[in-house]
Specification:
Radius of gyration of chain A: 25 Å
Structural class of chain A: alpha+beta
Strand content of chain B: under 5%
Oligomer: heterodimer
Distance between the termini of chain B: 39 Å
Strand order of the largest sheet of chain B: 1-2
Order of helices and strands of chain A: HHHEEEEEEEEHHHHHHHHHHHHHHHHH
Order of helices and strands of chain B: HHHEEHHHHHHHHHHHHHHHHHHHHHHH
Number of helices of chain A: 20
Number of strands of chain A: 8
Largest sheet of chain B: 2 strands, antiparallel
Distance between the termini of chain A: 31 Å
Number of helices of chain B: 26
Strand order of the largest sheet of chain A: 1-2-5-4-3-6
Structural class of chain B: mainly alpha
Number of strands of chain B: 2
Number of domains of chain B: 3
Helix content of chain A: 55-70%
Chain lengths: ~650, ~650
Amino acid sequence: MNSTLAQMLTGSIVNDAIAFAPELVVCGTIVLMLVIRLIPRYDDVHLGWIALVITGYVCYLSCDQWMQETPRSGQVAKTSGKDVSPIVVTAAEPHGLRDDQLVQVTEVEGNTTANGAFRIKVLDALSFQLREDANNPVKGDIRKGNDDYTAGGNWKVIGGTHNLFGGMLIYDSFGIFIKIFLYGFTALVVLLTLLTGIPDKEDSADFYCLLLGATVGMSIMATANHLLMVFIGIEMASLPSYALAGFLKGRRQSSEAALKYVVYGGGASGVMLYGISLLAGRFDSGFLPTVVRGISTDGNLADPVVIMGLAFILLGIGFKLASVPFHFWCPDVFEGAAAEVGAFLSVASKGAALALLARITLGIGGLNGQLELVDGRALFAAWSKATDYLVPVIAVFAVVTTTFGNLAAYGQTNLKRLLAYSTIAHAGFMMMGLATLTREGAGAVLFYLIAYLFMNLGAFAIVAFIRNLTGHEDVTYLRGFVYRSPLLVIMLGVCLLSLLGIPPLVGFAAKFQIFTVLYEGAQDYFALNKPHLGWTLLAVLLAGGLNTVISLFYYVRVLKVMVLEKTLEEVEDREIEQKPAPLFPSIYATALAVIIVVAGVLWNPLAERTSGQGVDTFRETPIVRAAPLPETGGPVGPPKGPPPKAPKKGAKK
Amino acid sequence: MFFEYDLLLMTLCIFIPSVFALALLFFPSGSEEYMRWFSLTGTVVTFVISSFVFIDYLRMLDNNNDPALMGAGIKRADKKTTLMERASAAAKAEAENKPFANDDLHARFPWISRFNIEYYIGVDGISMAMILLTTVLFVLSMIASWGIEKYVKGYCMLFLILETGVLGTFFSLDFFLFYIFWEVMLLPMYFLIGVWGGKNREYAAIKFFLYTLFGSIFILIALLGFYFTDVQDFANKETLNAKAAEVIARNPALKKAQDAAKNDAAAKARVMAAALTKVEIHSFDLIVLARTGAAAMEWMHLTDTKARDKFLQKIVDQRARDGNPTTKEAVEKRMSQTFFTPTFQYVMFLFLFVGFAIKVPIFPFHTWLPDAHVEAPTPISMILAGILLKLGGYGILRIAYPICPWAAHALAWYLCILAMINIIYGAFAAMAQADFKKLVAYSSISHMGYVLLGIAVWPQTGEQYWAWGMNGAMYQMIAHGISSAGMFFCVGVIYDRAHHRNLDNFRGLYEPMPLYGGISALIFFAALGLPGLCGFVGEFMVVLSAWNFSTPEYPNAGKIFAVLSALTVVITAAYILWTLQRVYFGTNDAYKDYPDITVRELLCVIPLAILAIVLGILPALVLQWMEPHVTFFVDSLMQIRT
């Protein structure tokens, strides 16, 4: 181990570990639960409560991290004078920045070299040093003051990625946002499993270990910064999912589902690994920024090796997303697995896969917002060339996925299978947002994910409650169910109509934002003189609108059967047998429905946060130029170059 | 802002029904009778509040009366009372930190600032008429709902939520808000038809849902298209100034320059101009969009560079006077946005038109209507024919025409033809029906054709007759709201007794039910357009204005339209008289024991009969407060070209 690497590791590992704390806590819990399982005395302890507390806690931890990463801005009080290098900026109020964040300084008068985008080093609560110029990260390019400060000046954080563990993982507000989403969602799923009684006490240790393990894998997917970590994340998320899918041990269908899932998943992993090795070999590195930059460099896109590598990696992600044509596992698995597992797989693994897809595609696409930071048009041209192909490719996949999902859902009578096709359609809708390759698009997708969390979880949860009440998951057995259990059906109605996108429910707000970014993206591409991309996005918009109409059929059909059709009792002229849901499931379902309605009316706060996410995180993510890049040679692994500066303070105070 | 009186009043009017619907949740099962009374109270309270709005509205007109325009007993309100002027006044008051005007029936409240969406409501003559019609008809159809025995709680809740949706749509002045309320109406209607409807109700309900949702997707796309246009040249100057001030506050250099330029107006203007280069305004505000649409029409009519230059200069001058200067190049750049191109205007107009035409319904989008009407329970048919169809006409008037006037003008000829098809086809189709409700449904299609014809006859060659047509269309909407609701009720009354609607199997109903027979004859004559009853006024005005319509290619087109639409009245008379004959006249032993109309049924139908007579004799009762705003609306569209 050479000295640089050693220094790097000892210098930053503690801080990195603190930033990685949520995952470590979850891993610790898994170990704890396995240990408990070994002790016969605790056999009849239901471990769900531990899982609930821990996921709640790590969600809180992630929120805390996120608060520190939210974009800040402020005014400059003064800067250092002439010929001081590096320039020291003193903020008017405590800035709350941390080392290595990218800060854009504007409008400083006098000492005008202070204007620009810089990676900073914090000196104290009020002042920070301007280190490398983000636009021109040649080593040692640290600007000198050219004059004394006279007046003015604003600073604004424009990004704050920071590499963990030598660049294996990335730490930015986008990733943290996804983690909050994942942990919060897992907490809700754990709560659901506690309410429905799957798993029982005996199996609880296994079940929650698998659940939490998959969650850790997904959070690694969302923060991966290296192809190897991408693969490890996907595998860590997949392997427990296979076992979860087969968790209903006595049921043949469940085992069949698990087997199908394993076979498809194994195949997808293999192909993806092949793609990873192609790209890593081609660019001499698996470091994601390097690879992404390599792909987007002009000329490389014509290289079949690059195309194949990229296609194979996207295939792996498409498998996790259940995007057509890699969706075959999805309906079978959801039908076979318990509804609780279906809820988990449909939301969490899609969220993580979308985050990963966003990171890779937006990185390659180069983002039009990026241009402010780029000097010279050459780079722009190179990047937009990749955009030329990526936008139509993602758009086609998105439209095909949505349309297929909606059409296939039409004939389903099993509620879980129907919802499985609905999740495929929704994955397509979210991919439509990413097809724009804009930061706003990513922001809209984040909003959609949050909305989707509540409505999809609600739908699956109610299916699970209905299963517990009646033993049926098939819609044909649920004729006139509203007269037997009105509350559950009404809440299911809210969730399904939100999935359909009827205002004033949150699903409409989400769909509206996807449509908005599509229209806006189309306008942007027309303005950039790329009419074919503009027309593509407009076509996607129209397809999205028509798909909403198509999806009306099957969502409303469920309600039709449950509300409009006569119950069996009524047909036979018997007294209708009431089957009201128990108290806590009712509260759970009502709470989700209320969230769906309230967030559908007052979605401004969430929309502002998520759109801010899209804007301020992605601005930097693809700027790999700010990070040191190996030009040639070197093993797959952390790049050469100056070691990342160890942050003074950890991310968590 | 919370305590603005008119904001509260209008908000109450929209949401009181929903509040009652929520309260219904707490009624125990078994108290169906109380639920009905409670819901009736809800609709009556809403009606009372809407009449408060109406009183305020009349007072506003009185306070702004232009004596020079008074004449022939018709009140001519001042231009100050148009929504556009009130919006400007309110923006000005807000910028000057004056207290909000409590009596201008125009109120806004920020809602989703990320997309500049506001809770923006207001009333003018056009919407006021529709609102009153809505609240009256909801009270009456609640009375008609007494016969609903199945799941009364659910019925009443959905019924009241539907009222919120309808009222919200009529009150909205923000396109997004309009769209939300528009969609809110869908679901209650779906369940009201689907659960409480006739034999084939599920099919009818899903057909209704599907058609309307399909249309609203197009409206949604149009809505996005408008939003992504930078409309700063047509926004309220105060909004623009506030945006510029925001930019200056964020930008220290500009701030310093502004501070330095304390008393120097020229320097201040320079700072402002610099700030304004960074401002873009995107809006769902229907009034701002209407201004933009008008400008688009004017811009596209100017072909030579000199005239265009003059137009740009006009905007630049205006903005300089408003204190938010811009340059001619910047304006020109903004005028080259897609919004200001013919293709965009055509496409968006067609999207909006399809969306609203489905609701009207206009041929060939009408096929859902007979099904929905036949299957819907009587009170829901009353609402559907009386109000929901009007929403389509209202949408065309309030949204499609002002925002895309260029396309509306260019396509006037085709719209007229569609209207003619509606009128004639609807009448003939009605004649062929054997089902009583279907007959009334097709007659609705025919009568709504007059509404479209009145709206569509935009003068192509310069004469000023369009205001008649527009007023006639509005009047026809009100009259049809009354007569069609009454007709459906009359059908419902015999359906309750005979349990079928087959016209050929009725006979001699007049004998056992003389009172009922008399009232239904009155209502049917009102629908027919007999002079002295409400249906006549609207149709007459529409036919008059159609007579004057001409296009350069077909100078006599309007005359043909007028003659044909007048002749259709004969067909209407034919099928209505034939129906009366088949149903009421003669003797029939089978129906001899039918009881005459009950008190509850009378309570429901008598107000409609009275309205049909009063509005037929005294059209001024409505026209005097509705006509000024309709005419101003027409004038504002007509002025664009001159």
